[in-house]
Amino acid sequence: MASKLTKNYAHIAVSQGTIVLAKSLLLFILGRELGASGFGVYTLLFATPILISTIATLGVSRAITFSLSGEAHRRETVLGNHAYLVCGIIFMVTACQVVLFSLFPETLFNILGRSEKTASLLIGAAFTLQVANNGILHGVGGFHRLPLGTVLQWAVNLGAIVFFWSQSTLTPSNAGLAYALGLIVFGLYTLRCPEMRGVFRPQKPDIVYFKSCFAYGSKASALTLTSTINLRLDYYIVAYFLSAADLGFYSLATSVCEVFLNVFSRGLDFVLLPWAAKQSANNRIEQTARLTRVTFTLTFLLAIGIFMLATPAVTFFFGQQYEPTVTALKYLLPGLVGLSLSYTLTGIFMGVGQLTPLLWAGTVSFLATLILDIVLIPRIGINGAAMASSIAYWVQAWITLAAVRRESEYAYSRYFIPRKNDFSIRRK
């Protein structure tokens, strides 16, 4: 029989496939209609709340998944205290955004107007609800609920985008509002799932649960802080040194990479956390090597295909104005492979509560990104940002892999060279 891991990933894969199709269409519409400068503004209003909310929420979300998977707390306790956690984090995310907008109005956020900032605040609150609810669904094995929710989210998002487009009112702020509306629909859908029924029966706040949740979540948030900032740091440095149009060119290149990253690795990260929490050490070590080989092989072949098609595809779908995107995209492709490996290994480490290696990897990678961005972006523009990202992603992947090897003592080749039975979905 197919393993439970395979079944869970199949549900995630459907969700990620939906995201790939929807994001591809979204990029096509927004890239062409907003132009490079408008797309750069949309990128900044979108990236800021996602960055803050991811840092604030993912640690707690993964702590919820870890608690439910490892049965550290009763489901009634987790569900009964969920509303308190979500409301507190939404307040914190909103406050952080307001502070940032107030501190850097003429530097980092000078290209955002009042309407763009309002859309950004709404995205932060809606994204927080989505991620926190996913923590419960992942922990109780509710992966089969995700495909329909994802379809609903992106149908609403794209429907709103098409409406604004048809009315000739498609602006960066309206595009942001459309994205927030999709997130809200997803959040409301998950609240209606049977696994979430206890959320509507809040209990007396459980201080012991909160302490254990934040004890695990603080480390996960610290990891998320470095890894998420590492993904978005270059946006802010490009916006500071260059122009909104340059940010638009570069963000299109990163968006294309992230669309394809969703195909294999991003969903696998969340599936592996509850899976790893229940595995014996020997089985986990062997399966980690196998999953790493599969991830490396698939993303390496994908990167080759994107490299070959980058020039004709970008100019055909987005026009000659986006020609600077092509070179940056090609420099980002090696990093796509490295980042995929990091996502795979991150889910496994978090499932067994070993967060220290991930913190080291994320911190070193963040410092590499910061130093290389400051050195390269003023000199060679967005191509420098792409080079810096690729180098930093491989630094993160290599440090994480070295930590895995200390436990397994396998040769490095065992994590990269594919084997004949790696792609079998059945176990003997």
TrEMBL record:
<feature type="transmembrane region" description="Helical">
    <location>
        <begin position="119"/>
        <end position="136"/>
    </location>
</feature>
<dbReference type="InterPro" id="IPR050833">
    <property type="entry name" value="Poly_Biosynth_Transport"/>
</dbReference>
<protein>
    <submittedName>
        <fullName>Oligosaccharide flippase family protein</fullName>
    </submittedName>
</protein>
<feature type="transmembrane region" description="Helical">
    <location>
        <begin position="42"/>
        <end position="61"/>
    </location>
</feature>
<feature type="transmembrane region" description="Helical">
    <location>
        <begin position="148"/>
        <end position="166"/>
    </location>
</feature>
<feature type="transmembrane region" description="Helical">
    <location>
        <begin position="172"/>
        <end position="191"/>
    </location>
</feature>
<keyword id="KW-0812">Transmembrane</keyword>
<feature type="transmembrane region" description="Helical">
    <location>
        <begin position="82"/>
        <end position="104"/>
    </location>
</feature>
<dbReference type="Pfam" id="PF13440">
    <property type="entry name" value="Polysacc_synt_3"/>
</dbReference>
<keyword id="KW-1133">Transmembrane helix</keyword>
<keyword id="KW-1003">Cell membrane</keyword>
<feature type="transmembrane region" description="Helical">
    <location>
        <begin position="331"/>
        <end position="351"/>
    </location>
</feature>
<keyword id="KW-0472">Membrane</keyword>
<feature type="transmembrane region" description="Helical">
    <location>
        <begin position="358"/>
        <end position="378"/>
    </location>
</feature>
<feature type="transmembrane region" description="Helical">
    <location>
        <begin position="12"/>
        <end position="30"/>
    </location>
</feature>
<feature type="transmembrane region" description="Helical">
    <location>
        <begin position="298"/>
        <end position="319"/>
    </location>
</feature>
<feature type="transmembrane region" description="Helical">
    <location>
        <begin position="384"/>
        <end position="404"/>
    </location>
</feature>
